[in-house]
Write a structure and sequence with these properties.
- The complex is a heterodimer of chains A (about 120) and B (about 400).
- Helix content of chain A is about 40%, strand content about 0%.
- Chain A contains four helices and no strands.
- In chain A, helix 1 crosses helix 2.
- Chain A starts with a helix and ends in a 17-residue tail after the last helix.
- Chain B is about 5% helix and about 60% strand.
- In chain B, the strands form three sheets. In chain B, strands 1-2-3-6-7-8-9-10-11-14-15-16-17-18-19-20 form a 16-stranded antiparallel β-barrel. A two-stranded antiparallel sheet of chain B has the order 4-5.
- In chain B, about 35% of the residues are buried.
Chain lengths: ~120, ~400
């Protein structure tokens, strides 16, 4: 057994023992890191009693979530379309376009008319 | 209990999306099916009347024409799938217009601008046909459109292309489009009115880019930037600028206009109350000096699957074009560009309305889904409603009412 393998084996045993938390070597290992300061995590008390990860909070608040195809029944609703009634949208855009100095945004083209 | 057709269709769409993503995971999905052409034939008809309020007697000369414009509009649309990845739609509009329209301004004894109307001589018909074809791929859509609009004194032809690209597991959509319009004007009465041209033309080139984002299972947002460049004859051949001292000049708005619009739309559904809210805001600015804000809130309230009541409110405010003036003062020299069109003055407008929709299906007749709707909208404009203070509002500012009835059939 060469030197490098011996050191690696010792480290592996030490880390396993440190995880068990009952062996003296493990405690020594842990105490070696006791003076290492972990950063202060922000308190999440305002959300819940127990601290949660950002991911959990995002999921809980339904925020910044990638919506999967099978979760789209609400988004696929008729009244969730940008323009649920095509004829009404065309007519209203045409009316406002002919009575105001503004063009409707969000589309290109469309014909001119003698109304403006 | 029998499930409604709409509910079953929604389930079918969910199932199809689910199946396709499961197949994609297994690596066996052949053709794209998550974003496909429409899967049913749909046709709609709508009839509406647009009528402008009479001009207030204080805003014109005694015994002057006070009646204004009326338009009745009939629209038909038809959308049909051709294959799984290709669909087409068509929209036809037939309008008849009649009444009087603002001609020029003069002043009353106190020096306040008043409106002179054209006399109730205008009658015109507009027929408009628009076609749209869409080709769908795994992660997007490519569309082509063309249209033709014709009136006694105006013909316009337009072509365009638009598309969408989905990414981020279809939670983000990039969209864009380009369009061209070529218009020909042949104003009536050019032989009687020397200031009126007999034939003119106008061209418009437009483009837009948009970005849509699904926020969560119940809400999404979309923002877009639209640009339009018009050149040619952009004036109104039927409007004139009056100079005190009985001088008349033609409406002249120059030969070019660049328009920019930034639009943000947000949709949110509230499952607990079966309501959907649409919120939109648009900022607009152009090289004529007009800038405007438009904000709208639409509230779709469902009562079960059959009834929907949708009230909406819209606020609009614009600044005046650089060359707008009510009239030329005595001995004031005419400007190179000028217009007295009230639509280029500074004002604000508030409109509100409500739409009721009743949906039902006929299991005894091909299980067709029907949607019938009735709507009313009222539009009020004035200088007082403007965001900026307007010292002398245009006398021709319009108030109107639109009544509409429609029927949609989904096969």
């Amino acid at each position: 057994m060469n030197g490098v393998t011996r050191v690696l084996r010792a480290l592996a045993i030490a880390s396993l023992l440190s995880q068990s938390g009952c062996a003296t070597i493990g405690e020594t290992w842990n105490s070696m890191w006791s003076d290492v300061k972990l950063p202060d995590f922000p308190a999440f008390d305002e959300y819940t009693e127990s601290p949660k990860s950002y991911v959990e909070i995002a999921l809980e608040h339904d925020f910044l979530v990638r919506v999967k195809p099978w979760e789209r029944s609400v988004l696929a609703r008729h009244d969730m379309a940008w323009d649920p009634d095509g004829l009404e949208a065309a007519r209203r855009n045409h009316t406002f376009f002919s009575k105001e100095a503004t063009m409707p945004g969000g589309s290109a083209g469309g014909g001119g008319c003698g109304c403006n | 209990m029998r499930r409604s057709r709409r509910e079953r269709r929604r389930e079918r769409a969910t199932l199809r999306a689910l199946t396709s993503s499961a197949l994609a995971l297994l690596g066996v999905a052949g053709k794209a099916s998550a974003d496909t052409a429409i899967d049913h034939v749909e046709t709609s008809y709508s009839f509406s009347t647009y009528s402008e309020d009479k001009l207030e007697s204080s805003k014109t000369i005694p015994n002057g024409e006070r009646n204004r414009f009326k338009v009745s509009t009939q629209q038909v649309s038809l959308a049909a799938p051709i294959t799984d990845w290709f669909d087409m739609s068509m929209q036809v509009t037939h309008e008849t217009m009649s009444g009087a329209s603002p001609w020029y301004n003069t002043q009353d004894a106190a020096g306040t601008p008043i409106q002179i109307m054209s006399g109730a001589t205008i009658t015109d018909t507009r027929n408009d046909l628009n076609l749209h074809a869409n080709y769908y791929t795994e992660n997007g859509r490519l569309g082509f459109s063309g249209g033709y609009s014709t009136e006694n004194d105006y013909d316009a032809i337009n072509v365009g292309t638009d598309g969408e690209l989905h990414f981020n597991e279809k939670n983000t959509t990039l969209s864009g489009g380009l369009g061209l319009s070529f218009d020909q004007l042949t104003p009536t009465g050019s032989d009687l009115y020397t200031l009126r041209p007999s034939q003119e033309s106008k061209q418009s080139y437009s483009g837009f880019v948009g970005l849509g984002q699904v926020i969560n299972r119940r809400s999404m947002i979309q923002s877009s930037f639209t640009y339009n460049w018009s050149k040619g004859y952009l004036s109104d051949p039927y409007k004139e600028v009056f100079g005190i001292g009985n001088r008349f000049f033609g409406d002249d708005r120059g030969g070019a206009r660049h328009q920019f619009a930034f639009l943000v739309r947000y949709n949110r559904h509230v499952e607990e109350t079966e309501s959907t809210f649409h919120l939109s805001y648009q900022y607009y600015i152009d090289t004529w000096g007009v800038s405007s804000h438009t904000a709208e809130l639409d509230w779709y309230q469902n009562f079960g699957d059959a009834i929907q009541i949708a009230p909406h409110v819209r606020y609009y405010s614009q600044t005046a074009a650089n060359f707008y003036l009510p009239y030329l003062r005595l001995n004031q020299a005419p400007l190179p560009e000028m217009s007295s069109d009230y639509r280029l003055s500074a004002y604000g407008a508030l409109s509100f309305g409500v739409k009721g929709e009743y949906a039902f299906h006929t299991p005894w007749f091909r299980d067709i889904e029907w949607r019938a709707n009735l709507s009313v909208e009222r539009y009020l404009s004035s200088g007082d409603l403007s965001l900026t203070s307007v010292s002398v509002p245009a006398p021709g500012l319009v108030n109107f009412t639109v009544l509409s009835a429609g029927l949609t059939v989904v096969f």
